[in-house]
Amino acid sequence: MKGLDTNILVRYLVQDDAKQAVTATNFIEKNCTGESPCFIGHITLCELAWVLESNYNQDRSAIAGIIEQLLQVGQLEVLDPEVVWRALNDYKVSNADFPDHLLARVNQQVGCESTVTFDKKAGKQPGFEILK
C-alpha cells in the first residue's frame, strides 16, 4: 500500500500544473487499485480541505463533495472512514472548518467528552467547548 500526500491529491483533483498533474494522475491510475488501494490519512484530508478552500476558492459544498467521493472510491483507503463520515456530516451543516470537525470526532472516538478550543465557530458545534 502507498500513502498519498496532499500535493498528489491536489494535482490529481485540480489539474493546475500540467507536468505534476500528469505524473499524479498516472501514478494514481496505475498504483491505486481495488486490490491494492492507496491510503489517505486524516492529516491529508485536513490539508486538502484547507488548500481547496484557501488556494482554489472552493466552497463548502464542493469540498464536502470531494471528501465524500474520496470515501467512496474503492481504489483509496481512508483512515477511520466512519469517523470521517461523521465529521463530514457535521461539516455539511455547520460553519466550522472540516479539520475542526474531524478533530472533534477523532477525540470523541478515543473517549474524550469534548474538545476544548478558543475557536468561536468550532466552539458552537456539538463536541466542543470554548475555553474562557
H/I helix tally: 7
* Backbone shape: globular
Question: What portion of residues belong to β-strands?
Answer: 5-15%
Biggest sheet features: 2 strands, parallel
- The span between the termini is 44 Å
The counted number of beta strands is 4
Given helix and strand content, the structural type is mainly alpha
Strand order of the largest sheet: 1-2
Return the domain count.
2
The share of residues in helices is 55-70%
**Taking Cα atoms only, what radius of gyration do you get, to the nearest Å?**
16 Å
| Mean of residue pLDDT values | 96
Provide the succession of SSEs: HHEHHEHHEHE
**Residue ranges: pLDDT <50 for 5 or more in a row?**
none
Describe the protein's architecture and organization.
The chain has helices at 6-14, 18-31, 42-54, 60-72, 81-92, 98-109, 120-123, and strands at 38-40, 76-78, 115-117, 128-130. It is mostly helical and 132 residues long. α1 (6-14) packs across α2 (18-31), α3 runs antiparallel to α4 (60-72) and α4 (60-72) runs antiparallel to α5 (81-92). The longest helix is centred in the N-terminal third of the chain and has 14 residues, at 18-31. The radius of gyration is 16 Å and the shape is globular. The chain starts with 5 loop residues before the first helix and ends with a strand.
Topology:
Layout: H1 6-14, H2 18-31, E1 38-40, H3 42-54, H4 60-72, E2 76-78, H5 81-92, H6 98-109, E3 115-117, H7 120-123, E4 128-130
Parallel strand pairs: 1-2, 3-4
